[in-house]
Write a structure and sequence with these properties.
The chain has two domains: about 5-200, Rossmann fold, CATH 3.40.50; about 220-480, 3-Layer(aba) Sandwich (Rossmann fold). By secondary structure, the protein is of the alpha/beta class. The chain contains 18 helices and 14 strands. It binds uridine-5'-diphosphate-xylopyranose (2 copies). One uridine-5'-diphosphate-xylopyranose binds next to α9. The site of one uridine-5'-diphosphate-xylopyranose has 24 residues, from α5.
Length: about 475
């Protein structure tokens, strides 16, 4: 029986290991984490993350060949293959602040592995890390090895939240990077044998360590770039009367471009895109490639621009002041079908509106009040640390914010509604009922292309939808200003 241990029971480690256990009944998989609360949740009926289909997979193999434990060292010592999927925050101080990855958790994991290991191990990088991290980790392991052989592999994760189980069940590709030595090749084969139980051979791609590490950063940079490109076009559409969704549809029909990831939005979020691009920027700078660094930095810059453009639109539409006005925020997660709020555009939009003295009433079907308050109180880049190591949030200070149980409650008595997440339920709300309960003029600012603009205008709303021709009412207002 192959024994696998994964350090880090998060969005990546949890579902990925559950799938390995599910597909390989003869492999023993133990997921460990320094957070006992997280481990307890994985062992309970309420898993710590919401992911469609995850409950079934976990229930099918938990306590059979899938285990969640806080006894990190014992399970690491016992395993042959160790996945590392711990946080890699962006540094907030010192060299590379605001760009470089902080590898504190990765490094301490590597030192711990070296300390407790009594037999040879394959150590697999799952966290997204800067290119050449594997090499640094390899040094830590071998310098502390006491004669034990460590092989390091890079096996980047491409699952997207909300579709993680689907992505893990039939991945478009599995990348395994390793050393081109006999030992490295053997390690690659060992990991390949695990995936080969359910992934077709031609989808398992092996390569050198650095190519695998860079492929992950490049893939996320490309995906984010498509969104920033559409968001850049959305600003031009609003200025000219073109419709960004028509443009996206038209260009997506070109098979060289393809239709996916062309949705203009209030801005991309999630734990990976911004962090990975900033990483890429920093690596380019370190290698003397300033032009390349600037090229990729623009992808993040446009994303910041898109969020502040949205806030400006809300404020300027509402007669240049939102002070004391109630605004409903529908959706807080960084996309639908997840309760994850890391880097969600909603944080910047809410903070922008709070800065202008608005009173916010926030509703998200999957995000808790505690999480929302913590997010709004955090400093930039502080989110990516294990939660129990974070300072407790001064949540009481956010008096301008209330968190409510449904969309109707959020919108009652509000001057405007901002849609931040494309939850399906926001498409079928009774907007007439909402309109009746709102102050007039009643505004809808759709950051996700969720609502039917024409229908809402018929009801009487003033509607702004990213990248669509401006509401005649708004156009007149802008012209007057
Ligand atoms: C993680 C990284 O954050 C990301 O950079 C990488 O690309 C993939 O792995 P994710 O699984 O989404 O992504 O993160 P998170 O949900 O925060 O999980 C990380 C877990 O590691 C946390 O549960 C944390 O408690 C745990 N951890 C962290 C350890 O067990 N040991 C540590 O030293 C640090
Ligand atoms: C992403 C990658 O897709 C995945 O392969 C990688 O492993 C981790 O990062 P994830 O962050 O879960 O996954 O979400 P994704 O679906 O890529 O969406 C990221 C953000 O972009 C979301 O905020 C989403 O709303 C936004 N987005 C996506 C758009 O604004 N427009 C689009 O067309 C697509």
């Amino acid at each position: 029986m192959v024994k696998i241990c994964c350090i880090g029971a998060g969005y990546v480690g949890g579902p990925t290991m559950a799938m390995i256990a599910y597909k390989c009944p003869d492999v023993k998989v133990v997921v460990v984490d320094i957070s006992t609360a997280r481990i307890n949740a994985w062992n309970s009926d309420h898993l710590p993350i919401f992911e469609p289909g995850l409950d079934e997979v976990v229930k099918a193999c938990r306590d059979k060949n899938l285990f969640f434990s806080s006894d990190v060292e014992a399970h690491v010592a016992d395993a042959e293959i160790i996945f590392v999927s711990v946080n890699t925050p962006t540094k907030t101080r010192g060299l590379g602040a605001g760009k470089a990855a902080d590898l504190t958790y990765w490094e301490s994991a590597a030192r711990m592995i070296a300390d407790v290991s009594k037999s040879d191990k394959i150590v697999v990088e799952k966290s997204t890390v800067p290119v050449k991290t594997a090499e640094a980790i390899e040094r830590i392991l071998t310098h502390n090895s006491g004669g034990i052989n460590f092989q390091i592999l890079s096996n980047p994760e491409f699952l997207a939240e909300g579709t993680a189980i689907e992505d893990l069940t039939s991945p478009e590709r599995v990348l395994i990077g390793g050393r081109e030595t006999p030992g490295g090749k053997k390690a690659i084969e060992a990991l390949k044998a695990v995936y080969a139980r359910w992934v077709p051979d031609d989808r398992i791609i092996t390569m050198n360590l650095w190519s695998a590490e860079l492929s992950k950063l490049a893939a996320n940079a490309f995906l984010a770039q498509r969104i920033s490109s559409m968001n850049a076009i959305s600003a031009l559409c609003e200025a000219t009367g073109a419709n960004v969704y028509e443009v996206a549809y038209a260009i997506g029909k070109d098979s060289r471009i393809g239709h996916r990831f062309l949705n203009a939005s209030v801005g991309f979020g999630g734990s990976c895109f911004q962090k990975d691009i900033l990483n890429l920027v920093y690596i380019c700078e370190c290698n003397g490639l300033a032009e390349v660094a600037n090229y990729w930095r623009q992808v993040v810059h446009i994303n910041e621009y898109q969020k502040s453009r949205f806030v400006n639109r809300v404020v300027s539409s509402m007669f240049n002041t939102v002070s004391g006005k109630k605004i409903a925020i529908l959706g807080f997660a960084f996309k639908k079908d997840t309760g994850d709020t890391r880097e969600t555009a909603a944080i910047d939009v809410c903070n922008g509106l709070v800065g202008d003295q608005a009173l916010l009433s926030i509703y998200d079907p999957r995000v808790t009040e505690d999480q929302i308050r913590r997010d709004l109180a955090l400093n930039k880049f502080d989110w990516d640390h294990p939660q129990h190591l974070m300072p407790s949030s001064p949540s009481a200070t956010l008096k301008q914010v209330s968190v409510v149980m449904d969309a109707y409650q959020a919108a009652k008595g509000a001057h405007g509604i901002c849609i931040m997440t494309e939850w399906d339920e926001f498409k079928t709300l009774d907007y007439q009922k909402i309109f009746n309960g709102m102050e007039k003029p009643a505004f809808v600012f759709d950051g996700r292309n969720v609502v039917n603009v024409e229908e809402l205008r018929k009801i009487g709303f003033v509607v702004f939808s990213i990248g669509k021709p401006l509401d005649p009412w708004l156009k007149d207002l802008m012209a007057a200003a």
